[in-house]
Specification:
By secondary structure, the chain is α+β, with helices and mostly antiparallel strands. The chain folds into four domains: 160 residues, no CATH class; 71 residues, Cathepsin B, Chain A (Alpha-Beta Complex); 153 residues, Jelly Rolls (Sandwich); 172 residues, EF-hand (Recoverin, domain 1). Helix content is 28%, strand content 20%. The chain has 18 helices and 24 strands. Helix 12 packs across helix 13, helix 13 packs parallel to helix 17 and helix 14 packs across helix 17. It starts with 19 loop residues before the first strand and ends with a helix.
Amino acid sequence: MPYLHQSLRPQPHPVPRDARTIHSSGRSFEELRQDCLQSSTLFEDADFPASNNSLFYSERPQVPFVWKRPGEIVENPEFILGGATRTDICQGELGDCWLLAAIASLTLNQKALARVVPQDQDFGSGYAGIFHFQFWQHSEWLDVVIDDRLPTFRDRLVFLHSADHNEFWSALLEKAYAKVPIQIQNASESEARTPFGLIKGHAYTVTGLDQVNFQGRKIKLIRVRNPWGQVEWNGRWSDSSLEWRSVNLEEQKRLGHSALDDGEFWMAFEDFKTHFDKVEICNLTPDALEDNALHRWEVTVHQGSWVRGSTAGGCRNFLNTFWTNPQIKLSLTEKDEGQDGCTFLAALMQKDRRKLKRFGANMLTIGYAIYQCPDKDQDKDGHLSRDFFRYNASLARSKTFINLREVSGRFQLPPGDYVLIPSTFEPHQEADFCLRIFSEKRAVTRDLDENTDIDLPEPPKPTPQEEETEEERQFRALFQRIAGEDMEVTAEELEYVLNAVLQKKTALKFKKLSLLSCKNIISLMDTSGNGKLEFEEFRVFWNKLKHWMSLFLQFDVDKSGTMSSYELRNSLKAAGFQLSGHLLQLIILRYADESLQLDFDDYLNCMVRLENASRVFQSLSVENKDFIHLNINEFIILTMNI
């Protein structure tokens, strides 16, 4: 939720080494296991009951599932039998080939596999029906605790299973992944088979690359695996193809060639490029693929939100709101080795959409655009305005806006300052996102929306003027008639005075100023502390009010008498308030209506409270202009007085 309180201080985004346990008990895997061992009970995970509701939200299985522990399925269950290999991955009834292909790839990197599948668990003396696995999500490791009850039908595992029926690490890993705050749902995967034996729309795993001597020349081969554990390529260099007859047995043995229908096969690299559209390469950390590689990625992470009415501006097609999206400044300072430009990857991920799917939230169509920073100092000017995007084209952008969980691209730009704008395609669509920037050389990034800067003029002291204007004479007469001889008005009397005057302003659309607004005005302007407003204090406020009315009408772009919440940022900036994106979201949540509009009473209340809070902060921040120190009593008094 973007509306919860967040620290306004910039927060670093470290890459944590320890995993965060996600279990409702708040206890770790080892603590839960020890409890079970001491009480001689098998763990039952209350967060993932052994029922259909844990697996499905929009459909029901065609056959009844019976949940059993591995020891109830086979006589001698093993967690890992003879090492975890890609042949341990056989797809079940769930259409999650994308997950199984990723798990199969993981078995090729034993160091990474040991992080995801901890080795401190088995069915031996420490067995208590509890297991745990670790997953990398949104720049942190999650330690997921599960029990080992698995859905079966006729004593066979329904979903992912190993080729060895007494090995269970892969089945338990799939269950743990189903518990992560995302949702695995049957993809109803297409089984349209091509004449060459490949499955359309199917995810495969690349398990090897090599070259083979064939008729006096080198042929590039690639080894691919179908997570089904069967159904293979039948073209050139397939298991039984004629090409292998021209390869000596020693070479075939080196390549591990066999004619088994195990789902794994070789094919010519040229055929691979013809029949496959996309290859996904995943790094668990910013490091290169090999620990001893010379090149390492530098990474920065930005967590943000698209919030309706403030930061959900949509793509560049919607110029009036596009500029309100979050803006990330990217400074590229060093060229790549032997290159003229700076290489970086930008990966934009929408968070928790699969988890929210059961509530009707589908994947949003997302993407980003990259612009050259203007010459003037961005640290001073902050958020780029609508006019900038009106007259400047993007230098780079995501390949397309698409409804995927993550959109990424690789770019090379000259050294300089750039601004990256992540957005949904349509405006007013809400979601949380994670933006990661990977660069070959160190790059500096900063959220242009993170700073709050207040620039208010010194408040003028009420002083009597030698000559009054006609407007002031009318005000004085009205003020004296309402206030009486002491020439001071209460909040109720101020409400009457202001509404009597403002009702004549036909360009302003509002029923009347509220009593709350008038109380806030007195809190701002009352220098004597008696809860009333003297005429000289009122006169100073009236000049301030005229300035705010002018700004309101200026940023009422459609002349409707109300202001769009998307225009509030510019209006506040013109009044001296440059606010962080999160603070702006809170203000819009409080003051805008369901149509994302502010009438003048809402706008005035907002301006008065902002200035009051700013003045109070300035008066208290004597030693340090960025921070003040309050105890609980002082803090509550302060908040009740603003």
